Amino acid sequence: MMTPLVEATGLSRDFALGARGLFGRSRHVLRAVDRVDLAILPGETVGLVGESGSGKSTLGRLLIRLVEPTAGRIRFGAEDITRLGGRALAETRRAMQIVFQDPYGALDPRMPVEQIVMEPLRIHGARADAAARRAVAEMLDLVGLPPRAARRFPHEFSGGQRQRIGIARALILRPQFVVADEPVSALDVSVQAQIINLLTDLQRELGLTYLFIAHDLAVVRHIASRVAVMYLGKIVELAEKSALYAEPLHPYTQALIAAVPVRHPSARAAGRVRRAELSGDVPSALAIPSGCRFHPRCPHAMALCREREPAPREVRPGHVVSCHLVNPA
Amino acid sequence: MPADEEGLWHRPSVLALRRLLHHRLFVSGLVLFAIIVVAAILAPVLAPINPDKIDMNATFLPPSLRHLFGTDNFGRSLFSRVMWGARLSMLIGGATVAINAVAGTVIGALAGYYRRIDNIVMRANDALMAFPPVLLAIAVTATLGPSIIDVIIALGVVYTPRTARIVRSSVIVLREMEYVQAAVAAGAGDWHVLRRHILPNALAPLIVQLSFLFAYAVLTEATLSFLGVGAVPPTPTWGNIMAEGREYLTTAPWIIAIPGAALMITVLGLNMLGDGLRDVLDPRLRIQQ
Amino acid sequence: MSLLEVAGLTTTFATERGEIAAVEEVNFSLEAGEVLGVVGESGSGKSVTALTVMGLLPRPPARIAAGSVRFAGQELTSLSDREMRRIRGPGIAMVFQEPMTSLNPVFTIGEQIIETIRAHERAGAAAGFARTVELLEKVGIPSAAERMSAYPHQLSGGQRQRVMLAIALACRPRLLIADEPTTALDVTIQAQILDLLLDLRDEFGMALIVITHNIGVIAETADRVLVMYAGRIVEEAPVAGIFDRPAHPYTRALLASAPALDAPLAAGHLPAIPGTLPDPRHRPPGCRFAPRCELAIPACSAALPPLTAVGPGHAASCIRLGA
């Protein structure tokens, strides 16, 4: 088996929340990511789907050390980067980058595009000389922006163009691993496809490895090779794309797929029947249900589901599910 | 993205400047404030009579061509005194703003950026802010002594916590911006993030605050002088002139009215200027295009 | 007579750089009980159209430059604020995208619904309470009587949107406008809310306008569809017509560019629409979509294409329909 490029073992992250004492500590702890294991192979795209509050964005940021883990380990290539700091961490960061969801908040409004894209180079000691400017120009060309974009400011661009700028900034250090955190969710429908195509082209040209975070299952189906489904801080199912969409095993994955709007009005009635089983809202991450955290919404919940948390099991090669209902084939 | 204009014209600071120059309130405020600043700068030229020169033969003269603003109970030229008073007001206001800009930014940025020290720094801040500004200023000048420098220090102590709080709240918001996260993800250290992203973007609300602060400082200084705990008489501060004129309010009302009017023009101008800056610079108020 | 008739509607906004038309020459009508889907991207004018109908645009900067809005035979554009307030609620009601900011955080949800009922009719405290509980049950809030005393922050996003629906339905409106009602919600909640909207339409017998950027929401809800682009209607059709025989190149591209769950997996590129949405200040001459359209010919940029019938109730504004 191939050595993973990025590997998380038992990775957790707690956030302290809410009312604090005068000088004191918070009493509420929210576990956003709960003992997650995930291995991402070089050159692949892992899709990470889940609803808001599932912890998918936090997990993405944990992997590149943008958020500090509470517990667990992260390996990047051969190296354990969990406790890396200072110069060593800065060096490692060259190889791991992130593309954000909101193309408006992701670019410093006071900087011209050239400075924005050049910034990672400058952080790593390059001077703002002709060579750096050439690197920026090449990068802008690669993401499909005209050379004159370099001298302009973020507010002069549309959402899709800003996302291209954000991608150029993420790629200028020639990283191996890129976390794409809902990169098309905030874009207009007619522009989303452009950005998805750009990301797949860049992956091929630069040999990138992606963690593609999204809530849109159809987009993930297009771009990912494997898909992980998160619910309340845990990965509940992980499989090859073809297996996951053709035969989702976890009831939550089934519900997510059933909830996607139909593609043709003639399928309406069937769609309603298909998704009728799932009810209720996602519980608060502050009050995670006992046992299997999906059991209060699960149409197939048994007594066991309320009591014991299901462990992840590889029910078929490469298909891992955490559910008491699923038996190994 | 129109192709015909140069990038320079789309620089956010240039855009803001263009909007400011079309903002009526800002321009009016700027003109009023400029009158006082010009008076302060040109005081030695425009008011050649020594503001402290006593002429007991010319006391309580009402405003005339010879004495534009009249004279006071010692026959001193009020024109000279008010002009030199403008100098002191501008000096005190400017120095207070400078202290605040530096100390408030440093304290606010550190508290906002480093959550560990935030609690301690902000509780100390709250303690200072719990005193009424004038009382606190009196306490400081009473300890240090009543000179211009001591008044400036007092105003610095009174207003820096307020400025620090404003800087801190912008820093807390900016720290979570994704462009800051992007810089951190690229390997940037704290100093880089603060200097390149956070402080430049925290500047706009700070400038708005400082324009209002200038007005408060001038007003508070006048209050201190008026109460007799500011710069010692016969230093020609507006507060001192007004304090001396208080006894002659009915017989020689110009003694108190003229420095009062100067004070009003200064505060009004600065507040209008600050409101204009806020309209243009504060993104929360800007209508999305 | 249709319930709602919008004719030649043009709504403009005054900006620093002159007047911009957000909506241009929009015509449509709506029958009682019908669900009209309006689909478009940012700047398409779909929300401004709805807000104009509701009389909720601040004037100035907004201005109805031309056209008429007739609701149940009554012209709305010339009504005073006071008269318009009487239409809102029992006549037309609206729910918005963001259920977080649409509710007042300092009042319980029960108080907010009763207040709406009492603004339009005399209802005693007991009757108002009973009506409110009934409404909350209708929109699917579990243990409604207890939830009456909950504050908005104690509810999830989906529940808040249900409460917004209850408020909108409090006066039994004849037309409900839902502006991106599920955009801020998760997929599983979105499906629930869409199903609820259709159930409520049946139960209350009202007409429904669903405004969305998501073609899937259209497929789930609409009887008839308007496709808007850069302030204008580019295609109008019964819902099956939009999905089976999309006529306008923009509609076709929009349908093709969104990846589908049930379509066979296409390797490689998604069919993307090139270019960007036009800046409302610099809209292209002629057909607004021409610069991004693969069928465009020089004549497309010469004049605005007229709306041309292509089937029963189906029309598109494009001069290249046969191409």
Structure, explained:
- The complex is a heterotrimer of chains A (329), B (289) and C (323).
- In chain A, 32% of the residues lie in helices and 24% in strands.
- Chain A has 329 residues and is α/β, with parallel strands linked by helices.
- Chain A has a single domain (6-95, 175-321), classed as Rossmann fold (3-Layer(aba) Sandwich), CATH 3.40.50.300.
- In chain A, helix 3 runs parallel beside helix 5 (159-171).
- Chain B is mainly α.
- Chain B has a single domain (3-51, 66-288), classed as MetI-like fold, CATH 1.10.3720.10.
- Chain B has 10 helices and no strands.
- Chain B starts with 11 loop residues before the first helix and ends in an 8-residue tail after the last helix.
- In chain C, a hairpin with a 2-residue loop joins strand 4 (62-71) and strand 5 (74-75).
- The mean pLDDT of chain C is 88.
- The radius of gyration of chain C is 21 Å and the shape is globular.
- The interface between A and C is large, with 45 and 47 residues.
